[in-house]
Every structure is written in structure tokens, then in C-alpha cells.
Amino acid sequence: MAHYKAADSKREQFRRYLEKAGVLDTLTKVLVALYEEPEKPNNALDFLKHHLGASGPETPDVEVLRLELAELKQKYELTLEENRELKAKLAEYEPVSEDKHSE
Asked: From its phi and psi, is residue 74 left (phi > 0), alpha (psi between -120 and 50) or beta?
């Protein structure tokens, strides 16, 4: 009987630990979200991983990548604008039509 109480005590300690750390609330919220999904996903484990954030990179990495993406988008837009300007300048120096070359 003492062995049963010791195991019960360990379980209770572990449950309190999970509750204190917010694990139980988070799991409950994710499971409720899965329950409330109108169309259940084919892979429930992937759904849980996605909603728990286990499938993605760490938060600091995500922020660094977002900043890098924003910077690259800005460079891309500048490059597109420069490309348009250069094409316009080039068009000024190119002949209007190829018929003039044939004469």
C-alpha cells in the first residue's frame, strides 16, 4: 500500500509542476482548438506540433529572419525601380523599330 501512495504522490507532484508551468493550460487550449476545428486535420499530431510551436524555429531566430526578409524586400523593390529606370534609358537609345535597320 505504501508503494501505491508513493506513486500517487509523485503523480500529484508532477501534475502540480505541469500546472504551475502552464503546460496543462496550453495543452488544454490546443486540444480545444483541435476539437473545435470544423474539418479535422489528417494528422492530429502535426496540428498539435504546429499550434504548440514545436515545428518552427525559436522565436529569436524568427525575429532575425523577419528583419532580414524586410531588408531584402526593400532591396528588391529598389532593384526593380533601378531596372525600370535603366530600361527606360536604354529605350531612348535603341531604334524605334527594326524596319529602319533594314533600309
From this structure: alpha
**Distances, alpha carbon 51 to alpha carbons 28, 31, 43, 91, in Å:** 12, 10, 13, 53
- What is the C-alpha to C-alpha distance for residues 16 and 22, in angstroms, rounded to an integer? 10
> What's the N-to-C CA distance of the chain in angstroms?
109
**pLDDT tens across 20-55, in order?**
999 999 999 999 999 999 999 999 998 988 888 765
Instruction: Identify whether the C-beta of residue 60 lies closer than 8 Å to the C-beta of residue 34.
Output: no
- Give the three-state DSSP class for 103: coil
The full set of domain ranges for the chain reads 1-56, 57-103
pTM of the model: 0.46
Q: How far apart are CA 58 and CA 68, in angstroms?
A: 16
Question: What is the DSSP track for 17-64?
Answer: HHHHTTHHHHHHHHHHHHHH-SS--S-HHHHHHHHHTTTS--HHHHHH
